[in-house]
Amino acid sequence: MDERNNHFDFDFTPIGQAIKKAREARGITREQLSGIIGYAPRHIQSIENEGQYPSIELFIQLITMFDVSVDEYIFPNKEVKKSSARRRLDAQLNRLNDKELSVIEATINGLCKAKEQPED
User: Fold this and answer.
1) Please, which residues have CB within 8 angstroms of residue 113's CB and are 6 or more apart in sequence?
2) Burial 13-39 (b: 16+ CB within 10 A, else e)
3) How far is 84 from 88, CA to CA, in rounded Å?
4) Is 118 helix (H, G, I), strand (E, B) or coil?
5) 108 φ, ψ to 5°?
6) Which of the given ranges, 41-55, 77-91, 106-120, has the highest pLDDT on average?
7) Residues 6+ apart with CB under 8 A from 65
8) Is the pLDDT reported for residue 82 higher than 80?
9) Cα separation of 27 and 19, whole Å?
10) Greatest alpha-carbon span in the chain
11) Helix (H) and strand (E) counts in the chain
12) Tens of pLDDT, residues 6-18
């Protein structure tokens, strides 16, 4: 007798949202993505917003295209090397020149300094 657990209960919504954020960060619309991958914009919307499971082929295509790390969603209690947000930020930073990066660096330094200050 097959004793496998066929009642797999996994909420795909957070991964879909990560894909959506990564797509939007790249300035790609659902319609543009639809033309690239050959799936209807409505199908992409249901994956991003409604937690619909994509096929394994589409899943791999989307996470590699948008550099989305799924470890943080599949293994939430395990420390991940780089979250999806950090990977998206890295990709955006790679598109900046040194002058623009110095503005980002100053902003980060200011945020870190503010975190070190005790609240009144």
Assistant:
1) none
2) eebbbbbbbbbeebebebeebbeeeeb
3) 6
4) coil
5) -65, -45
6) 41-55
7) 37
8) no
9) 12
10) 65
11) 7, 0
12) 556 778 899 999 9
83: number of Cβ within 10 Å: 15
Distance CA(23)–CA(48), nearest Å, equals: 10
Residue type, 11: D
Please give the pLDDT value at position 120. 60
Give the C-alpha separation, 103 to 110, whole Å: 11
Position 77: which residue type? Answer: N
User: 10 Å Cβ neighbour count for 98?
Assistant: 7
The CA distances from residue 88 to 25, 61, 113, in Å, are 8, 16, 24
Nearest alpha carbon to residue 59 among 68, 71, 35: 68
Q: Which two tokens stand for residue 6?
A: 């066929």
Instruction: Compute the CA torsion angle 34, 36, 37, 43 (nearest 10 deg).
Output: -10
Q: Which residue has the tokens 């919307």?
A: 45
